[in-house]
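Here is the promised in-class demo. Please do not try to memorize the tokens; focus on the logic of going from shape to residues.
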């Protein structure tokens, strides 16, 4: 890890001091997910970004990407997939792929790759590790989001307070996750809004 968890912890705690975005449940995905200020009727749809060179189709269906022996800080990313009218959408395909903690992708197998479908309340949940930065790129997740019969939204999600965000030309603040340290786990939240 080359980042500064202490600084992130302080900033994350400050950002969350006034609210309980994740609720108190140990399993964040069990907590009701309130709408975020990012979604308001007629608001902006989630930005598209390049898929980059490391996407592989046919990832396994799973929300748990951590495998035995895997190093790196644990992260639980949860959120909603919403329509532009801020209505949660069930059954949406959410396909994540990302680098390991050393900034390397598995291009021969499916390590740190997995797809899932939003539940009846439009929720998804990813349990994985925080990806490492790699040359030219700040820390990020890749993701494709597709509702049944809809077009594919390909984008990337970013981490707050990353020094690399400033020098990565692809970085967009609109794609920042909200994060907070919680019992050694990095809790993260991002809601997608489909057009
Ligand atoms: Fe990447």
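The designed amino acids, position by position:
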């Amino acid at each position: 890890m080359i980042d500064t968890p202490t600084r992130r912890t302080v900033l994350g705690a400050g950002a969350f001091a006034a609210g309980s975005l994740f609720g108190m449940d140990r399993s964040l995905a069990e907590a009701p997910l309130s709408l975020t200020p990012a979604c308001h009727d007629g608001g902006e749809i989630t930005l598209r970004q390049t898929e980059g060179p490391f996407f592989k189709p046919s990832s396994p269906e799973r929300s748990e990407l951590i495998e035995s022996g895997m190093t790196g800080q644990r992260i639980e990313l949860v959120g909603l997939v919403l329509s532009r009218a801020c209505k949660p959408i069930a059954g949406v395909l959410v396909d994540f792929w990302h680098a390991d903690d050393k900034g390397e992708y598995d291009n021969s197998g499916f390590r740190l790759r997995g797809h899932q479908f939003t539940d009846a309340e439009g929720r998804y949940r990813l349990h994985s590790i925080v990806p490492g930065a790699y040359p030219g790129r700040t820390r990020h997740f890749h993701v494709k989001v597709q509702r049944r019969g809809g077009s594919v939204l390909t984008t990337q999600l970013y981490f707050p307070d990353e020094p690399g965000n400033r020098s990565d030309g692809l970085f967009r603040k609109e794609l920042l996750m909200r994060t907070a340290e919680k019992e050694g786990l990095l809790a993260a939240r991002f809601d997608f809004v489909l057009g």
